[in-house]
Amino acid sequence: MATEQTYVMVKPDGVQRGLCGEIISRFERKGLKIVAMKFMIIKKETAEVHYGEHKGKGFFDSLISFITSGPVLAMVLEGDNAVSVCRNLMGKTNPQESAPGTVRGDFGMVTGMNIIHGSDSTKSAEREISIFFKPEELVSYKRTADVWTYE
Ligand code: DAT
Ligand code: MG
User: FRET pair for 96, CA 20 to 30 Å: which of 48, 89, 112, 141?
Assistant: First the structure.
């Protein structure tokens, strides 16, 4: 089993629209384990580091101002292939192209307000988790439901 951790974040639009509970619930029901969670307003400098790969692109400035425009709910989720499992639950970057049943497919209308972020690789996950969480903020515990989640 390839146990991974991934960084997932309900963006300011998701928080303002009251979708935090719904989104957490989807990941929980899927079988992912919550390892850490934090509610915060991201500083501009931190947002620029987080989205560093997009620096220089046309949408970069609006992306930074959007992601810092209100509180976000940041979390670390763990499970078998957690990175791709979470990306699949999120849907495609453009919500209009996202399948129904995904977070973006069910709740979003435009790419600039697509509700949720999730790391795109284990390498990005490691980097993004370390931007928003200290190592001691990741909680290590056994989840009894795992014996009914994994063979
Ligand atoms: P994802 O969030 O699906 O990993 P990404 O990493 O390519 O997508 O882009 C990060 C965020 O930037 C994305 O969630 C929304 C915004 N974005 C990406 N492409 C965009 C575009 N063409 N116009 C406006 N915003 C865009
Ligand atoms: Mg991305």
Answer: 48
